[in-house]
Amino acid sequence: SADGGRNLNLDSVLMGLPMSDPTAWATAMNNLGMAPMGMTGQPLLPDFDPALGMMTGIPPINPMMPGLGIVPPPIPPDMPAAKEIIHCKSCTLFPPNPHLPPPATRERPPGCKTVFVGGLPENATEQIIMEVFEQCGEVIAIRKSKKNFCHIRFAEEFMVDKALYLSGYRIRLGSSTDKKDTGRLHVDFAQARDDLYEWECKQRMLAREERHRRRLQEERFRPPSPPPVVHYSDHECSVVAEKLKDDTKFLEAIQTLLTWIERGEVNRRTANNFYSMIQSANSHVRRLVNEKAAHEKEMEEAKEKFKLALSGILVQFEQIVAVYHSASKQKAWDHFTKAQRKNISVWCKQAE
């Protein structure tokens, strides 16, 4: 499931083993989000919750150099700068030199759940690899090569970030100093068809949910459809004919009659029924003409009323303006204060 896994020159430069305090491994594993294990394999922190582990929300890494796709992995703000020794049941992990730059990684593939692990000891077995990496999260599959590298697929994407934290660590099986029992881990993102397929399925599902949500939103604001028009029958015809004679139900009935005629319900058998309904509709013409004339008469009366009211308002306005003009003449104007004169001038302009 992990085609196109990268080939790496595994003869990395051998570095000295920086030894730190052997009692600090529990802190390091706690920082990794792993349940710290003793040499006997028993958890030392029985109440430790792996869900509180680090790096569960790191976004996909973008290449700083698009041509190379090589970037240093992100350093979470709450991750200790100096890595600690980690003791497992059958091996020990020694941290890289803190003064060296962080190991480079390729561009993160979308939906990546698979990592490439290089630099494994020649004598490392699948059980040892599982022991080291299952503490990062649930391992779905390990595909080990004859050479000293393998591919590991995790259940969730965030577990990949935990596995990448182990990149650069030096691994030693037991207490052996044999070259075949030591190695320097190199962990990197791997391209896997299964990861890409699952990611694409998830994207399609999210797109479907978004379309469904938008459709529901549109339907909520769409005006309700008009009720469907009943099919023509002799009984429905008699009902509509009665409604056509009723002024309050005429509008509903005339719409039904129009729909029936457009549907092609008029034939030799039903022609008389339709003629009588059209005749009933015609009888409303005189009523509508009379209503229109009554409304026009009301309109004319309203216009006359408006003209009378407006002329009365204008006469009063003219009288008010005449008062302002009289007050502005010399014999009255001189007796007002400066503020009073200013107000009278403003009022006069507004009224005009």
From TrEMBL:
This is ENOX2 protein. Residues 278-305 form a coiled coil. One of its GO terms (molecular function) is oxidoreductase activity. SMART domains: RRM. Signal peptide: none annotated. CDD domains: RRM_ENOX. It is found in: Cell membrane; Secreted, Extracellular space. It comes from Columbina picui (Picui ground-dove). Keywords: Biological rhythms, Cell membrane, Coiled coil, Copper, Electron transport, Membrane, NAD, Oxidoreductase, RNA-binding, Secreted, Transport. Residues 113-192 form the RRM domain.
